[in-house]
Amino acid sequence: MQAIQFFNGKFVPKESITFSIDDVGVLRGFGIFDYFKVYNGAPAFMEAHLNRFESSALLLGMEIPFSRNEIETAIFKIIQHNEFPLSGVKVLMTGGASPDGFSAGKPNLVITNTAVSETNPSFYAEGVSLMTHQFTREMPQVKTTNYATAVRLEPIWKQKGHIDVLYHDGHYISEVSRSNVFLVEGNKLITNEEGVLPGITRMNVVNLAPQLGFVVEVRPIALSEVLAAQEVFITSTNKKVMPVVKIDDQEIADGKVGAKTKLLMEGYAKLLAEETKQPSFQN
Amino acid sequence: MQAIQFFNGKFVPKESITFSIDDVGVLRGFGIFDYFKVYNGAPAFMEAHLNRFESSALLLGMEIPFSRNEIETAIFKIIQHNEFPLSGVKVLMTGGASPDGFSAGKPNLVITNTAVSETNPSFYAEGVSLMTHQFTREMPQVKTTNYATAVRLEPIWKQKGHIDVLYHDGHYISEVSRSNVFLVEGNKLITNEEGVLPGITRMNVVNLAPQLGFVVEVRPIALSEVLAAQEVFITSTNKKVMPVVKIDDQEIADGKVGAKTKLLMEGYAKLLAEETKQPSFQN
C-alpha cells in the first residue's frame, strides 16, 4: 500500500509533491515548518507543535491557507492511512510562486508522514559529543527552513566524530543546530531562552523537572560554564533527552552519562508513554 | 515560440523544472545562485558572475555537477533560443534530495533565462529611499538562497514607501538586501568590504572610479556617516548605480540626486554598453 501525503488540499503520493523554480521557498529560503513524532498512530505533543507552526507563520507574516481543524484532520487521515509503527509528521509551508523572483506568493502547504527508525541506543547509553562553532542564528524563535550553516558544517562534525554542532557567540551559547541545551548543577537544571528556538521537548522537560526534584533556572549560559558543567544534555523531538559527554576535545566531567540526566531520560520516556498511550519506552 | 531553460543537463520549458520535497534546497535552505543581465544576446560580466558562483559553491562545500564550459555553452544556447531583448540569467544550485531530511544529496543545477523590464527611470531621476533594519547576514560572502529576513521585511518597507532595506549592526552598516553601498565625500568614494557580498557592479564601480577622478576608500562605514553623507548610492546587477536620497525619514544632503552619483551612473552605463556591445544606455 502506497503512503499518502497532504499537498495543498489533496492526498497524494510523495512523488507528486513538487515545488516550482518560482517558489520563494526554493529561490529565497522563505519557508517554515514543524515536526513531531507519531507512535502507533498517536501523535506526540501535536498541539504544541501546531501552536509553534502558527507562531512561526505569524512572525514571518505568512498566512496559513488551511484552518487548524483542516490541518489536524489531514494529519489524522494520513497517519491512519499510512499505519507506520513509528513515523514523523512534517508540516511545511513555503512562500509560494513569486511574481518577480523575490516577493512571496500564495503559500504552499505540505504535510508529510515518513517512517523513521529509533535513534541509535548507544547515544543514550554512552552519550554523544558536539563540535562548537561561533554563529548566531537568524530569527532563532521562528522555525524557518534556513539551516544552511548546519548543512554546510555536517560533513565537518561527522568527520570529527561529533553528532551535531553547538553554536555560541564567542561567549554565550545559543543552541545545538536542532536541539536545546541544559546543564545540571546539583538539583538545578539550567537552560537558556533568549536567541533559541522555543523547543517543545525543552518545554516538557522544564514542566517535568519539579516532579523529579529539580529547580529550573532560565538564564544566559556561557560556553565556559558548559565545559565545566557536572552534566550536560540536549533536547529535541528527534533526540528526546540526550546526554552530552564531550564537547570538541574536552570531556564533560568524567565523560560518562550522568545520573541526573538518566533520571530525566526516564522521566521524559514516561511522559511520552503517557502522551501517546504506549505501554513503555526505552531510550 | 516557447522559451527554454536548462535543468540538470536538459533543455526544457520552465514548467518542467521542479524540486522535490526531499531537496535540501526546499527543506533546509541549502542552495546558491548567481544572476546577470543579457542585452540583445550579450551577457554582461558573465565571467565574473560565474567566478562568484564557483566561489559560493566552494565555500558551502558543494560540487557543481557540470563544467564551466558546459554551463557557458548552456547559457548561450538558451539565450540564443529565447531571443529576449532584455533578460536575466539565473544559475541556481540546490543541495538535492536528502537521504534523511538534513544531509545534502546530489545537487540540482538550473539555469533560467527570463525576460525583464528596465528599472523604473524615476528611481534614477529622483533617487530612492531605504528603510534601515538591524540585522547581520549569515555567510554574507556567499550568494546563498537565504533571503528570509528580506522577504519578510518587503511588505513593511513597501508600505512605508521605501524600495529596499539597509542592514546595520547597531553601529556599522553592511549592505542593502541585494545591493552594495557607496558614499561620496569630495572626490572620495567610500565603500565597505567586510561582511558584505562581493558585488560585481561594486567591483566595476571601484575599477571605474579612477578614470572619473575618484579615489576609492575601502573601510567599515558607520550608519551615522551614511546619514550625514554628501551623496549615497547603491550598486547591483538589477539596480546598476542607483542614487539614494532618503533613509528612513531623513533626507541625504538636500534630498536630490547628487552630481557625482550622476557621473558614476553615466560612467557605468558606458561600461555596460562597451561590455555588451550595445550602442548606448540610458538609466
TrEMBL record, chains A, B:
A single GO molecular-function term is: branched-chain-amino-acid transaminase activity
Q: Does this UniProt record's set of keywords contain Iron?
A: no
Q: Which cofactor does it need?
A: pyridoxal 5'-phosphate
Listed under catalytic activity are:
L-leucine + 2-oxoglutarate = 4-methyl-2-oxopentanoate + L-glutamate; L-valine + 2-oxoglutarate = 3-methyl-2-oxobutanoate + L-glutamate; L-isoleucine + 2-oxoglutarate = (S)-3-methyl-2-oxopentanoate + L-glutamate
SUPFAM superfamilies in the record: D-aminoacid aminotransferase-like PLP-dependent enzymes (SSF56752)
Q: Name one GO biological process term.
A: amino acid biosynthetic process
Keyword terms of this UniProt record: Pyridoxal phosphate
Q: Where are the membrane-spanning stretches? A: none
UniProt key word Transmembrane:
no
Kindly tell me the pathway this chain contributes to: Amino-acid biosynthesis; L-valine biosynthesis; L-valine from pyruvate: step 4/4; Amino-acid biosynthesis; L-isoleucine biosynthesis; L-isoleucine from 2-oxobutanoate: step 4/4; Amino-acid biosynthesis; L-leucine biosynthesis; L-leucine from 3-methyl-2-oxobutanoate: step 4/4
User: What is its EC class?
Assistant: transferase
Q: What's the EC number here?
A: 2.6.1.42
- Family affiliation: Belongs to the class-IV pyridoxal-phosphate-dependent aminotransferase family.
Q: What is this protein called?
A: branched-chain-amino-acid transaminase
